[in-house]
Design a protein that fits this description.
Oligomer: single chain
Number of strands: 0
Helix content: over 70%
Strand content: under 5%
């Protein structure tokens, strides 16, 4: 059964996705700040794990935005 969503349901889903995207972006900014602070302090061991985590966050964000784009169609 292919049931279309109402405007209110679509708005709720869009707002939820955008909140998740905002949270992940803020997480990436914090991760960049913490990694930069550690690197400037001489700790090189956090660079690759932080880069991998940031890349994973970016992939999740792209997937969420793609889902959002499909929802808008």
């Amino acid at each position: 059964m292919n049931r279309s969503l109402t405007r209110e349901q679509t708005t709720t889903i869009v707002q939820g996705i955008l909140c998740l995207v905002l949270f992940i972006v803020l997480l990436q900014v914090w991760l960049l700040s913490a990694t930069t602070h550690a690197w400037l302090g001489g700790d090189d061991s956090v660079l690759w794990p932080a880069a991998a985590t940031s890349a994973a966050c970016a992939l999740v964000n792209f997937a969420l935005l793609r889902c959002l784009n499909r929802l808008a169609v």
